[in-house]
Amino acid sequence: MALAVWLHNGDPAQPSTAGAAAALRQALLRAAVHVQAQPQDGGYGIVVFAQADAALLERLRALAASACVLAVGCEPLSPATMWRVLQAGACDVLLWADAQACGAQVLARLQRWHAVQALLASPAVSGLLVGDSPCWRALLRGVVEVAAFTTSSVLITGETGTGKDLIAQAIHRLSGLAGELTVLDCSTLAPELAGSEFFGHERGAFTGAVQARDGAFALADGGLLFLDEVGELPLAMQAQLLRVIQEQKYKRLGSNTWQPSRFRLVCATNRELEAEVARGGFRADLYYRIAAWRCRTPPLRERRSDILALASHFLRQLAAGRDYALDPALRDYLLARDYPGNVRELRQTVARIWHRHCGPAPITLGAIPPDERPAGEPPWPDAQFMAAIRHALDRGQSLGRIGQAAADAAIRLALEQEDGNNQRAALRLGVTDRALQLRRKAQADSAKTSPDAPGAASSHPG
Ligand SMILES: Nc1ncnc2c1ncn2[C@@H]1O[C@H](COP(=O)(O)OP(=O)(O)OP(=O)(O)O)[C@@H](O)[C@H]1O
Is Nucleotide-binding there in the keyword field (predicted)? Predict the structure, then answer.
């Protein structure tokens, strides 16, 4: 996969940006990077600029919604300006020094992003973790980068059923470790056996220790130790774990011999661990060791646009690889439903529907178990509406543009449904015939003067 990037001069009138953009273009071409004429969805962009004014920030926001953008400032930038550029969605911001140094920095970043992108598309990640919503993509990009390019410990926080366990598996796959993934669920450790679960024991170390046994530290040597529900770890055990992490060695219960163990540590919890630290329930020194890098798996309600892809993924798993279509009404049901148990609950919902379905035709609403069918009309605004608004906000759209686009869409749909009849469409929309005519004329005029204006493409011809 050849590396391609779009290069944009944000201040064409400024000689400094013109010079920097030209030098950067040369440096990229020398490194066999293809410089594109247009930004590509999911691609990379470089914006060279002198002034981070409102127009540039708006441009960055629009680009960053679908691409990784590197901002390169050609004049000295204040920290406040750098923050604004990052808040507008730039993945990184650099200061132009000279062509050679800056070219090398830009190239290094592009190569890293490209490598991360390739890993995201690899079966190790895409075959395991489904989702393309902006928040899920941002999470995965961070996970892949830290997993593949560092040996850092990782703390994964998030509600139940949001994929923490799967993220740990992905980190193991990407770490390049020869050793296994060893999982220990700290919420199921019986206090009297917890030491043995971690350290292992010698024969006769305690009553019932009829055989010597390896613990998690031995099993994880050379691999990855995943401590699930780490927030449940008793304080005494926390102190012992800290020591092993610091010294990279441990003793089996009943033994005097130190055993080395080198493992990568990944922990997960659905507790607010920082609050636990503040309240004294979790050791601060351990927290900082296990949380060298942190990430949060978003609840499904924050990534509703992934629901159908996840549902299809689970259906394919249940149907042993066969693809089954979902009837539109069933898709709407899945999109509008709440999932307090997050992706796990979606998976179970799909499984219950699948179990009731038979035959090759698309799966319909009738496959929903009777006790799960909603009573009465669903409330409005519903989750789908909220998801569309959230998506518009994520893309940096203002209240005015969102309202305008929603009104334009309602008019277009009402007209479509009433076969273009203005009077009937007006009745549906709760406005007068004349008001709708005026509105459509205003839409058509605005489309003529501004081809990029919101709704231009959607305005219905008179
Ligand atoms: N992005 C995803 N793609 C595919 N499957 C997913 C995804 N996220 C979660 N799942 C599925 O949802 C279920 C729950 O995921 P997982 O066990 O990783 O959640 P968790 O956050 O660790 O939950 P808990 O805190 O309860 O242990 C699993 O069946 C998992 O395969």
Answer: yes
- Do 31 and 7 form a contact (C-beta atoms < 8 A)? no
Residues with CB under 6 A from ligand 1: 129-131, 158, 160-166, 270, 297, 310, 313, 343-344, 347
Same domain for 340 and 221: no
Domain boundary among 250, 271, 297: 297
**Residue 378, pLDDT score:** 66
Residue 267 and residue 194 share a domain: yes
Predicted pLDDT of residue 139: 94
Peptide bond into 298 cis (omega under 30): no
ipTM over 0.95: yes
What's the gap in Å between 211 CA and the centre of ligand 1? 35
Q: Where are the alpha helices (DSSP H) in 176-293?
A: 194-199, 216-219, 235-247, 273-279, 284-290
Pairwise CA distance, residues 92 & 275, whole Å: 30
Give, for ligand 1, the residue of 143, 160, 165 to mutate: max count of ligand atoms closer than 8 Å to Cβ.
Answer: 165
pLDDT of residue 370: 85
DSSP letter at 451 equals T
Q: Ligand 1, atom 24: nearest CA belongs to which residue?
A: 160
Domain that holds residue 316: 302-372
Low-confidence ranges of the chain (pLDDT < 50): 451-462
The domain boundary, picked from 297, 329, 360, lies at 297
- pTM (whole model) above 0.90: no
**Can you give the CATH number for the domain in which 334 is found?**
1.10.8.60
Dist. CA 162 → ligand 1 center (Å): 5
* 336 Cα: distance to centroid of ligand 1 (angstroms): 20
- pLDDT tens-place string over residues 90-108: 999 999 888 788 888 999 9
pLDDT tens for 122-162 read 998 998 999 988 899 989 999 999 999 999 999 999 999 99
| CA atoms 318, 314, 141, 267: torsion sign | negative
100 CA distance to ligand 1 centroid (A)? Answer: 46
